[in-house]
Amino acid sequence: MPKRRYERREPTHDWQQINPLLKDTAQFNYEVIRPVVLWGQTPKERGAETGVSPRTIYYRANLFDQAGMASLLPAEPPPPVPKVDRRSLPPDIRQEIIDLHAQYPSFHPHEIATICFVKFNRKPAPATIKLIIASGPKPTTTERRYPRYSEIEDGGVRRRIIIRLHVDGWNAKSIAEYLDVSRKTVHAILRRFAEEQFAGMPDKSHARKQPRKVDISTIQEIKKLSENPDIGAYRVSAALEQMGIKLSRSTCGRYLSINRKLYHLQVPRKPRPKADMPFRAERRHQYWSVDIRYLDMHRLGGGMVYCISVLENFSRSILASAISRKQDNEAFFAVMYDAIRHFGVPEVLVSDNGTIFTSHNTRWMCEQLGIEKKEIKKGRPYQNYIEAAFGVQRRMADWSFEKAQTWEDLTSAHDKWMKDYNFQKHLAHEKRDDGCHSPAAVLQWIKGVQPEPELVYMAFSAMCETRRLNKAGYARFRNFLLYGERNLAGETVQVDIFQDVLTLDYNQERLSRYSVEWAPDDRHFTRVGYPRLYDHRYQSTQLELWQPGEVEWFVIIRDEPKSRRRRRRGHILVIQPPLFSDGTQG
User: Fold this and answer.
1) Sequential DSSP letters for 39-104
2) Which carries the bigger pLDDT value, residue 287 or residue 578?
3) What Pfam families is this protein classified in (predicted)?
4) Interhelix angle for 183-196 vs 155-167, to 10°?
5) Is residue 53 part of a domain?
6) Residue 8 forms part of a structural domain
7) Which residue from 2, 31, 237, 306 has the fewest beta carbons nearer than 10 Å?
8) What is the pLDDT, as a whole number, of residue 561?
9) How far, rounded to the nearest angstrom, does the alpha carbon of residue 551 sit from its chain's CA centroid?
10) Could you list the residue range(s) of the whole structural domain that residue 52 is in?
11) Are 509 and 345 spatial neighbours (Cβ–Cβ below 8 Å)?
12) Same domain, yes or no, for 422 and 488?
């Protein structure tokens, strides 16, 4: 059984038995007044029992009624009076440090110490300043002492504020950052005050101190000369120099303009004739313009690079465009074929007098497709609407063309320019009321005349090379056997080459595509690779003979050139060829 903490005793009201058991002063005082407060015993009777003065018992009972148990506790001692240390800063200096930091938090401690020394002739240590800022009183104000330099309208007040802060101990850097002004301006005002004192505070005139060349008499002479509407600034300067007055041509031109505007002297201007634009379109796909631009700013090496583009004159939209290493018929026809395949054919095709655009193949293609071929007049490139588009390309994309490191970078920059040009607003469509301000919005979905696919194929196949597929479906082209489709054995396919891409087409259906590497002579291939076979309606129902991972081995076969047989010498037989009645030869 645990030991009792307190000894058990019989309860009693006898003071003689209770008094020895009391251990605390508050407990003693409570036991003295308890019968008086609880049971109404008089202080005189309780004083006779306890030996305490009745007056004291009465006073303590009144305190208990007012303050409760707190009246029994001893009074708290007064706080100790701090000793005054001469090394501690006075309250006004402490408050000044806090206010300076609130005004400009970027103050360094040594700058605040300098300001305190100027104002109180006492320079606190930087460590003391840091301690006061961290644990000091609150600032007396949070508003700026002075507004910013730009917010003060009077120049004299601005300069006085800078001088006032400098006198208070602020350095030039703190003044400049506090007033949001340059340090150059602060130093100039301080130098001005050092030289001129308060006389240099107001604003000064910035007019030139040198004597003016143009006086009233000179102005009168210019006014007389300006009455001639055909005279110019140079003639006025020469006439004044003859009179002994030397004025520059620009000064004479300025006063000529002032006099003619002031006295309403109209200068006759000959109206400039508008440039003739014979190919201004009145409807979509009425005129197409084509041209080639030299991209000589590239850094890829390997010779010149060309941009071949086709533009629709009414909407100013680029229908087709490509980057090419060559400017020949094959490159031009590839771009033209792309434009016709997506947008039909125009009524008129406009170009300059370049050899590619005036060749027999180009005219034959236009004749087959029902396109009228026209050329601009020599020496008037502005008649070709695509010249303006090339000017836009120069401003939008030449910077990207110059930064291109690879051919892929150059083509991607070209594709981005073509998209941005077609979908950004165009100056020619700014005044349209239908809300269509970009070339793509003006062109919309409207296309030109859609020719028959067989007609398009015939028009372009005459200028492309053709090959006949062998029994296995391969076409022999420049010492390579390229797979087309074995189900079309014996049929003639079209071989299209554009830059480094070779495709086999049959009746407007693409059979396969290959990447080629050209030999230095630009006629033969050094390698053909990366084949891609397309799904088309002429595919064979038989299963493929090759596995998916062995496609290149079977699709592309290197073929050695056939050796020429040595011709035998024979007798020369002269035969008179027949004459054709229709004037053609077989």
Assistant:
1) H---HHHHHHHH---HHHHHHHHHHHHHHGGGGGSPPPPPPPPPPP-TTSPPHHHHHHHHHHHHH-
2) 287
3) HTH_32, rve
4) 90
5) yes
6) no
7) 2
8) 63
9) 46
10) 20-72
11) no
12) no
